[in-house]
Amino acid sequence: MKNSSMTMFITIITMSVMMILNSNNWINIWIGLEINMMAFIPMIYKVKNHLTSESCMMYFLIQSMGSMILLCMILITNTLMMTEMMINTIMSNILIMSMAIKMGVPPFHFWMPEVMNKMNWIKCLMLMTLQKIPLLFTMSLINPTIIMMVLIITSVIMGAMGGLNHTSLRKMMAYSSMNHMGWMMSCIIINKNLWILYMMMYIIITIPLMMWLNYYKLYYINQISMTASTLVSKMTLLINMMSMGGMPPFTGFYMKWMVIKSFTIMNMQFMIVIMIMCSLLTLFYYIRMMSPMFLMHYSMNNWMIKYYSYKFMLTIMFIVNMIMPAAMYIIM
């Protein structure tokens, strides 16, 4: 695919996201989601092989299923012979489930690790961040129901337990994204706009990590030990992983602290305990990803290190996870 085509598809995706964020009816939201899907599929198929073909087909079928449920619910709402309260409840539940299918939220998550495992890191980054923004926005327009609480619990549990059984970094990051989706949906229950702050901080943490993984073409745990060459680089990468897991006092902890504080005020201690315990499990497999760098002896020739871009990525990770939390503490 030419760079001009890639630029065009990225522009279309960005415009579709802006269209959804500024929509005032469900039909416009559905149209924006369809445009977003049809622009993202050619980006997946940039490298033509059987793996990308499979991921394109899986992504298309799942997104089409979610869009079909959304459209059917929009069209038949006015024909249901029920009270307004019953219609609102049923519509809210079905719309939440359709968004969960499109986001890959457990128990509708089985497609997401498989699709991510067949893409490069840049496409994975887009699927984990940019593609989730319009879906979370749509979910924030719906009144929270018991279905959303169930999705939050299943997301944090499956996102934590699913990553324990894999050595593929892309699958582990997919389950990590599911766990964070549970926290973002919790933000929707607390405050309709709080998930935006959580998503912004999640993107800021994820981008330098994905840039580093893409730069070295790392796809499995056993490849990580052959990258970082100095103690400073090892510690910086470890800090970034700790931030992803929500370890205080790094940036990722402040994202989860907002949710914990709000749930405590709402007397939802049961939810807090489940979410914190699952965060500890995600922290475990983040540490498992980084442990080969510290525990294995290896050597690397100086000519294998590209200093400028390497130091730039480490600097970004350091600023995001060490300086940014101090600034946030002063603001808060």
The fraction of residues in strands falls at: under 5%
In whole angstroms, how far apart are the ends? 46 Å
Low-confidence stretches are: 299-309
Radius of gyration: 20 Å
**What characterizes the major β-sheet?**
none
Count of DSSP H/I helices: 14
The tally of strands reads 0
One letter per element, helices H and strands E, the order comes to: HHHHHHHHHHHHHH
Helix content: over 70%
Mean pLDDT: 81
**Shape descriptor:** globular
Look at the helices and sheets and give the structural class.
Answer: mainly alpha
**Whole-number count of domains:** 1
Description:
- Its main location: mitochondrion.
- GO terms for molecular function: NADH dehydrogenase (ubiquinone) activity.
- Its EC number is 7.1.1.2.
- It is found in: Mitochondrion inner membrane.
- The chain has 14 helices and no strands.
- It is mainly α and 332 residues long.
- The protein has one domain.
